[in-house]
């Protein structure tokens, strides 16, 4: 049983890394896959804690750029504005996530049918937005005004419903408000860092009394798998999105959500 659980953790970690930064909802995919695999994690902590692997993937791929921004902070107003913009965008999710943490973990995380419905609805929205002839006013994430950052932050809060997708919500919000596809995806990458780090720290604090040493190999396996897969995705996603848009991910969501509903009705 332990070996099977490790295998499940490996599969779910790879799924987390594959889906975290594309607009298909990594949490929704992991919860659905875990449901059908019979995977049960202590306090549903595994599903949140392995996101640290994806955070480190972003830090790894963007390390040079992050160091450049950090070095520019004392003398470059645009660098300071960008960092402040990321923090402003993070704020709504930090406040609402902390207040609604119990409801999210105990109710929303335990409703596979809701996840499937949100995957389908999100796919339809993404498909519609991808086909819109939107005029872009911003082609660099560093140039987003603070008001736009705050609005994107409120869009991110929609992702507290599993199946919605954090990256999907932020990308769609940015596109609707004048960002081009590449800058919208890139801002979503940067916003993921404080958002996922905050979720990791808060969930670890909430579950510290119920997690045990027996949980560590499972979480570590998922963490490493998520890191490796996320590095691959982050390296190639922006170029793909710039050339092809988001239609592939919209259809992905529609197919997974529909198959998930069918499986739930067939097998429970």
UniProtKB/TrEMBL annotation:
Its EC number is 3.6.1.27. Belongs to the UppP family. Signal peptide: none annotated. It is found in: Cell membrane. It comes from the Bacteria. One of its GO terms (biological process) is response to antibiotic. NCBIfam families: PRK00281.1-2, PRK00281.1-4, undec_PP_bacA. The keyword Cytoplasm does not apply. This is Undecaprenyl-diphosphatase. Keywords: Antibiotic resistance, Cell membrane, Cell shape, Cell wall biogenesis/degradation, Hydrolase, Membrane, Peptidoglycan synthesis, Transmembrane, Transmembrane helix. It is an enzyme of class 3 (hydrolase). GO terms for molecular function: undecaprenyl-diphosphatase activity. Coiled coil: none annotated. Bacitracin is thought to be involved in the inhibition of peptidoglycan synthesis by sequestering undecaprenyl diphosphate, thereby reducing the pool of lipid carrier available. It comes from Kumtagia ephedrae. It holds the Pfam family BacA. One of its GO terms (cellular component) is plasma membrane. Catalyzes the dephosphorylation of undecaprenyl diphosphate (UPP). Confers resistance to bacitracin. The chain crosses the membrane at residues 48-67, 79-100, 112-129, 183-204, 216-238, 250-267.
């Amino acid at each position: 049983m332990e070996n099977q659980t490790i295998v499940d953790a490996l599969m779910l970690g790879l799924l987390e890394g594959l889906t975290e930064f594309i607009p298909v909802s990594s949490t929704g995919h992991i919860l659905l896959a875990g449901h059908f695999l019979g995977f049960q994690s202590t306090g549903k902590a595994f599903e949140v804690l392995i996101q640290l692997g994806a955070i480190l993937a972003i830090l790894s791929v963007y390390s040079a750029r992050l160091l450049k921004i950090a070095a520019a902070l004392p003398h470059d107003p645009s660098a300071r504005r960008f960092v402040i913009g990321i923090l402003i965008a993070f704020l709504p999710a930090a406040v609402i996530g902390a207040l609604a943490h119990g409801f999210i973990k105990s109710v929303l995380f335990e409703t596979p049918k809701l996840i499937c419905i949100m995957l389908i609805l999100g796919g339809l929205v993404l498909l519609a937005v991808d086909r819109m002839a939107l005029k872009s006013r911003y082609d660099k994430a560093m140039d987003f005004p603070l008001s736009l950052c705050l609005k994107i932050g409120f869009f991110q809060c929609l992702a507290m419903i599993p199946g919605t997708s954090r990256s999907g919500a932020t990308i769609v919000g940015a596109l609707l408000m004048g960002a081009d596809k590449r800058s919208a995806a890139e801002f979503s990458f940067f916003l993921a860092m404080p958002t996922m780090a905050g979720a990791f720290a808060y969930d670890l604090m909430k579950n510290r009394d119920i997690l045990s040493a027996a949980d560590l190999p499972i979480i570590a396996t998922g963490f490493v798998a998520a890191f490796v897969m996320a590095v691959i995705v982050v390296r190639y996603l922006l170029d793909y999105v710039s050339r092809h848009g988001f239609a592939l991910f919209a259809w992905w969501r529609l197919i997974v959500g529909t198959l998930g509903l069918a499986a739930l009705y067939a097998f429970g």
